[in-house]
Amino acid sequence: MEKYPSNPLLENDVYVPDVEARVWADGRIYLYGTFECTPRTKEQTSVFHVYSSNDMLSWTDHGVAFSATDVSWAKVEKIWAPDCMYRDGVYYLYYCVPPACLGGVGERGCCGVAKSTSPYGPFCDVGYIDGTDGIDPAVLIDDDGQAYLYWGQTDFVRVAKLKPNMVEIEKDSIVQPLSEKEHGFHEGVSARKINGKYYLTYTDTSRHYRRATAQGYAVSDNPMTGFVYKNIIVDNFGCDPKTWNNHGSLQDFKGQWYIFYHRSTHATDHFRQVCVEPITIDSQGDIAEVPMTSSGHGKTILAKYEIPAAYACLLHGNARLAYDERSLHQLSLREIRPNDRATFAHLAFDGETSCRIRAYAQGDCRVELYLDGKYLTALKLPKDETYQTAEKTFSPVSGIHALELRFYGEFDRAEVDGVQFIK
Questions:
Q1: What is the pLDDT of residues 224-259, one digit of tens each?
Q2: Residues pairing with 376 in the sheet
Q3: What does pTM read for this prediction?
Q4: For residues 311, 315, 320 and 322, what is the CA-based torsion angle, rounded to 10 degrees?
Q5: DSSP labels for 206-232?
Q6: What domains lie within the chain, and their CATH numbers?
Q7: Predicted local distance difference test score (pLDDT) of residue 41
Q8: What three-state secondary structure class fits 170?
Q9: Taking a C-beta distance cutoff of 8 angstroms, is the pair 16, 265 a contact?
Q10: How confident is the model at residue 96, as a pLDDT?
């Protein structure tokens, strides 16, 4: 299949949530995140991989950068949510472990640090960062060289000055930069300095009865205090029936700012995939909310491409993206029930006159196709237990549109592997 920009950002069978994106002196963009097990193996993994790219299209997996077995100060099975920072020839990897760590250190979790002379490791553990009691570390180096470490959940979020060695904090500097009430803060803080202002992005609980599906942000003139809540940048509500959290970062790459975030799959709180959307920071320093898309940093996907069902960005009903050994793309749109819907945004049409859907249904299933909410055509899915191709013609379509599939009829379930439009 031809490669083109899309969400998820990495391969369909790679699950890396909680991403911190960083650009180093070589000009490449690097992704540091939690590395989740695959639904094929169902093994619990406890390692970090680092991914890098020069174009956000082709990604290099640099292999295992750090493992739970490398943690020198506690016996742990899991490591989460890393961030990375460079100083004086050394890359420092900040990571966290769950609350249940050796000796009861950190009832809310613990933060540690490892270092390497390479941005992708392997990293050698330095140890526990004394004074941190929480998860999801993030780091910022200011223009004057002072470094700051952020960590924690809910009202136990904290920030402290890092000592010049980058592995210890000044414990008497610890303050609370955000709160649940004022900022909707839940977890997953990430820090950037943009045009002289300090931006904290984080998991925001302002919507959906305090469900933690959004990435919000707050801004201050000070890296530690005075943060004013601004807006939600992206909300992953609707990506999966059981979507439950969101965690990511802002990063500038080749002159364009992006919000990195994750989306759930498999109707579970595991198997989360990294996604990206371009954002605009206006003259006032404000960031407008952006919707989830299938196209990601590419802004559109040509409708003539073979589009995996795994690129669906918005689901309604029971449908979920899940591993399928019969799929051509590792994931398919599964467990579809009557009245479910799936959206792909945004597709660029150039006179296409027919649609092919690789799918099947157990029963009578009619799929109606809508472009930007306007009815286009309908077709029946093959009654089968294996994927077949259904095709339907229509009048030529041009322009950029959001495609929605709506499923109707009397059927137990339907499954879709991909869609393509043909001239």
A1: 999 999 999 999 999 999 999 999 999 999 999 999
A2: none
A3: 0.97
A4: 10
A5: SSTTT-S-EEEEEEESSSSS--EEEEE
A6: 20-298 (2.115.10.20), 301-422 (2.60.120.260)
A7: 65
A8: coil
A9: no
A10: 95
